[in-house]
Specification:
- The protein is mainly α.
- The protein contains 28 helices and no strands.
- Helix 1 packs across helix 3, helix 3 packs antiparallel against helix 4 and helix 16 packs antiparallel against helix 17.
- It starts with a helix and ends with a helix.
Length: 614
């Protein structure tokens, strides 16, 4: 029965036999149907049975719908009832045998796959998006079963060894999963903590295997997974499987814990989002690093990255309007999005892909790559529309508006924000409506400034949209949208030379962005705060906020770091280098609390870099 055609014929005969036996009155209970399925279905072949049953149900249903002879129609109806009984008992069989079925199916796929496809088959078995992904004990059973095939092919022994070592390493990590977090009470996340205090260093101490230890050490010193891959070109299949199992279980363990902290603003959805993004980037960098010399590993890394992003896209907290999050930082993640978008080009047009493209689009905007941002958002609009994901479609219309503002194409920005506003009101998407109101008001303020309109009523009308958006965001308790609303209002009042009001809104925007974890909005608000304070001749605050904004924007590789850098250069020229350094020194404790000692020490280097590029 290994050949699918005889297997299909066998299952068709089994289904027909149960139906005929039922019609003859020889089956009096559903338990008898279940027992016949139990005897007739071979473990690991459930997909074939399901296809045959589905075809048979459709055929009988067509007979019922089209039959005009009453006797024949009555018989077809009884047959349909019997077939539906088989379907309910098949669902019961699946539930009670899902573990055995999943292991058997995985075994069959791995052992019958070509050498190039074995890892792909293994990763399908552990994919969290599958109906029955293998859990820890089932993985151990799979490894045990694979060892029985070791004499036929050494790859099976290597995969089994990798699974067992990966699980053993994970169990050691699991006991110390969150130690690093409690040691660093005021600093959560993966970025900005190089060396011995990083989570990677904490986990490196408890794994005994050489390859995972080297991998964790690489990330602990803020080198990228790409650099690790380039040094590990001769990595064995066993070591690769071990690293894969460890990272998959580690990521899921962290997310499971963070997801349970829903009411903790510091350790809830923000850190789940950071974890999804961090591990997706790691796998994309591994895919890139192994591309030239170990294509099998490169392909499997891309496969895992897409699995992670697909899972992430289905979470209720997926950030349709967020930016690059605070804990998604550190120098080893710079230019990460270059690695992320390439594998998606081969993915099918799905709802998940539309959401992933949304994330890539607004992150590209933060990096100053506006054409790429527009391209991602246009693709996402089309895919979301076809998938019926209206909330995602509205989000991308809003993002298109925001990106066109950055390109100073205010006509298109207004057009897309109006479309988003109309569509959000039609569908009842309040978050989309709040963002559309903000984008519309912001676009109109910037257009009025560009055309040098001076009539106050023009700005008042636009600012009214911004205030409506803020009220709605506050009503929704949506911190991300509030941060954007405060920021847009602050910039609008800055443009209209109402500096104290602008500073008030921008300070609120910075606080909201800190809580929501949006690093881009934090840096951007600080940059505009520096400008507003400078125009108020408050050079101390301008130097403090400008330095912070410059550093944070540089950390996510955003070209906008040059805006505060230019202003700081002007201030230093006006007040003198000594006084400028004194102002920074006076604010050193506050700055270190946000960007650390290394960040503070890096500020002069950034200013030198800016001058050299002028």
């Amino acid at each position: 029965m290994s050949d699918s055609l005889p297997l299909r014929e066998h299952y068709l005969a089994l289904i027909n036999d149960i139906i005929e036996t039922t019609l003859k009155g020889k089956i009096s209970s559903v338990e008898q149907v279940y027992q016949m399925l139990l005897k007739g279905i071979t473990s690991g072949t459930g997909e074939v049975f399901e296809l045959v049953l589905s075809d048979r149900l459709n055929t009988i249903q067509s007979q019922v719908d089209s039959e005009t002879d009453e006797l024949k129609k009555a018989k077809a109806t009884r047959s349909l009832r019997a077939a539906k009984t088989i379907q309910t008992q098949w669902q019961r069989w699946q539930e009670q045998n899902k573990a055995t079925e999943a292991i058997s199916l995985s075994m069959r796929e791995i052992t019958t796959a070509t050498a190039d496809e074995r890892l792909t088959a293994l990763l399908r078995a552990t994919d969290p998006n599958q109906k029955y992904p293998l859990n820890l004990s089932q993985l151990q059973q799979l490894a045990k079963s694979l060892q029985q095939f070791a004499s036929a092919n050494q790859d099976f022994q290597q995969i089994a060894d990798g699974i067992n070592r990966g699980i053993a390493s994970w169990q050691r990590i699991q006991a110390n999963l969150l130690n690093w977090m409690y040691e660093r009470k005021n600093s959560l996340g993966f970025g900005g903590v190089p060396g011995e205090n990083s989570p990677w260093a904490s986990w490196a101490k408890v794994v005994n295997s050489e390859v995972p230890q080297a991998f964790f050490h690489t990330l602990a010193v803020e080198q990228s997974a790409l650099e690790f891959a380039e040094k590990q070109q001769a990595i064995s299949l066993s070591n690769w499987v071990e690293l894969t199992i460890i990272l998959q279980l580690l990521q899921r363990g962290l997310i499971n814990w963070f997801d349970q902290q829903a009411y903790d603003i510091q350790a809830g959805p923000k850190l789940s989002i950071s974890t999804f993004l961090t591990f997706a980037v790691i796998w994309s960098q591994l895919a890139s690093g192994f591309q030239n010399q170990a294509l099998i590993y490169s392909n499997s890394a891309s496969q895992i990255m897409l699995q992670i992003l697909r899972t992430f896209a289905q979470r209720p907290y997926f950030p349709l309007y967020g930016g690059i999050f605070a804990s998604f930082s550190g120098s080893y993640l710079r230019d990460a999005l270059d690695y992320l978008d390439a594998p998606l080009r081969s993915a099918e047009g799905t709802q998940e892909k539309a959401r992933i493209l949304t994330l890539l689009g607004y992150s590209q905007r933060g990096l100053g790559r506006y054409d790429r941002s527009l391209d991602f958002h246009q693709q996402a609009v089309e895919i979301a529309r076809n998938a019926g994901d209206k909330i995602c479609e509205i989000a991308n219309l809003n993002h298109l508006s925001r990106t066109y503002v950055q390109q100073q194409n205010y006509g298109e920005a207004i057009n897309y924000s109006q479309r988003a506003l109309i569509f959000s009101r039609q569908t009842g998407d309040k978050t989309g409506e709040a963002n559309a109101l903000v984008n519309l008001g912001y676009s109109e303020v910037m257009q009025a400034k560009q055309t040098e309109l001076s009539e106050p009523e023009v700005y008042e009308f636009a600012i009214n949209y911004l205030e409506q958006g803020l009220k709605l965001a506050e009503k929704l308790n949506d911190l991300q949208s509030q941060a954007l609303c405060f920021s847009s209002l602050g910039i609008a009042y800055l443009v209209t030379a109402q500096y104290p009001t602008a500073i008030n809104y921008l300070e609120n925007a910075f606080k909201a962005a800190q809580i929501s974890g949006d690093l881009y909005l934090q840096g951007r608000n600080l940059a505009y705060l520096a400008e507003a304070n400078y125009l108020m001749a408050n050079y101390e605050k301008a130097s403090y906020t400008g330095s912070l904004g410059m550093y944070l924007l540089d950390q996510i590789a955003s070209d906008e770091w040059r805006q505060p850098a230019g202003l700081l250069t002007i201030i230093r020229g006006q007040i003198g280098t000594d006084k400028f350094q004194l102002l920074l020194q006076q604010n050193r404790p506050k700055m270190i609390a946000i960007i650390g000692v290394d960040g503070y020490d890096y500020i002069p280097t950034l200013l030198v870099k800016y001058q050299e590029e002028m």
